[in-house]
Amino acid sequence: MFKRALSLLAAGTLFSGSFLTNQAQADAMVWRVSNEHGELYLGGTIHMLRPSDYPLKPEYDIAFKDSDTLVFETDINAAMDMGFQQQMMMQMSLPPGKTLQDILSPKTYTRLSTFAAERGLPIDMLQSFKPALVAVTLTQLELQKLGITATNGIESYFSGLAKTHNKSVSSLETPDEQIAIMASMGEGYEDDFINGSLDDFENLAQEFKHLINAWKEGDVSTINEKMTTMMKDRFPQMYNNLLVKRNFNWIKEIDRLIKTPDKEFILVGAAHLAGNDSVQNLLKAQGYTIEKVTPTSKSKSPNI
Asked: What angle do CA 170, 227, 20 make, to 5 degrees?
């Protein structure tokens, strides 16, 4: 999603200004990762998309065909379970006796109340929730107006393909770990988090278009400049919790997966694959070979 509000999209943040495609990086965000133990694929995702954002670039097709197992950030089937939803609501709720109005400044609370009311969502319905859930809820409502949903996201798309083609599916994190990450967003800087989210909504359609274009073109430098660097500068705690810590945890799992008989296609938010702390850079530092998959790459599996 944009880092303050759209973390569900790409673990990414708001784009601003003009967009220029880096032609030197015009391939999709898909890499082949290898060492002496084997190889696997690593691909960048956007968690919520429109039907018009398909078909994907052929690099995704190549990696899918040549893989036995798909690995997502979390178990997306478990995330749809009622028990997961209830657990998330519990973790995303404020302590008893505490309200949203208590933890936001009067100015921020008034701005949020006005915004929510204009969209038919009374602020009283949000009083018991942490700012993270409030921001995510409003983000999803705004995106749905643009036809952008998780149902059309990359994870949902490849989950369906995996089922159709009898490929195994696994995850890098447990649902509980995902809930904990989401619940911590905005802690200690609640006003900045809410105001940043509301600022993002002002040009949401155009900024989403920029985000999608950068992702489609594999423009890692733009994603780094407008997503990871912006978050690192403005919200270092969120940058560390949402990106850096998870990237370090994931390379440990990648080290385990690459030694298995199966070949995996790991799909994570695009922001995790940009910047100095990207998954690729961490893997390179440990001696892995990282190669961009190109449209001419050979696949060993039959066509989809």
From this structure: 115
